[in-house]
Amino acid sequence: MLLKRKRLHKKLSLPPPTTSSIPTDGLIKLKEIMNVGILTQEEFDAKKKQLLRI
């Protein structure tokens, strides 16, 4: 399974997923910003998709 992902990422010119590439700090900060009312749920979801490359 991991080998298939690496091949797919290579074809898409994306780095293979690693634990260091998971943007947990960014997601936590965005969630905190949303919780204080600066971001809406929709804005948070859009940014989350960007960070997770979904």
Can you describe this structure?
- By secondary structure, the chain is mostly helical.
- The protein starts with a helix and ends with a helix.
- Helices cover 63% and strands 0% of the residues.
- Helix 2 (24-35) packs antiparallel against helix 3.
- The protein has 3 helices and no strands.
- It has helices at residues 2-11, 24-35, 41-52.
- The protein has a domain at 20-54.
- The model has no long low-confidence stretch (mean pLDDT 75).
Q: Mind summarizing the main beta sheet?
A: none
The succession of helices and strands, N to C, reads HHH
Total DSSP helices: 3
The helicity comes to 55-70%
Oligomer state of the chains in this structure: single chain
Overall, the morphology is flat
- Cα-to-Cα separation, first versus last residue: 18 Å
Low-confidence stretches: none
Rg from Cα: 14 Å
Number of strands: 0
Average pLDDT figure: 75
Structural class: mainly alpha
Assess the beta-strand content as a share of residues: under 5%
Topology:
Layout: H1 2-11, H2 24-35, H3 41-52
Helix pairs in contact: 2-3
Can you give me a brief rundown of this structure?
By secondary structure, this protein is an all-alpha fold.
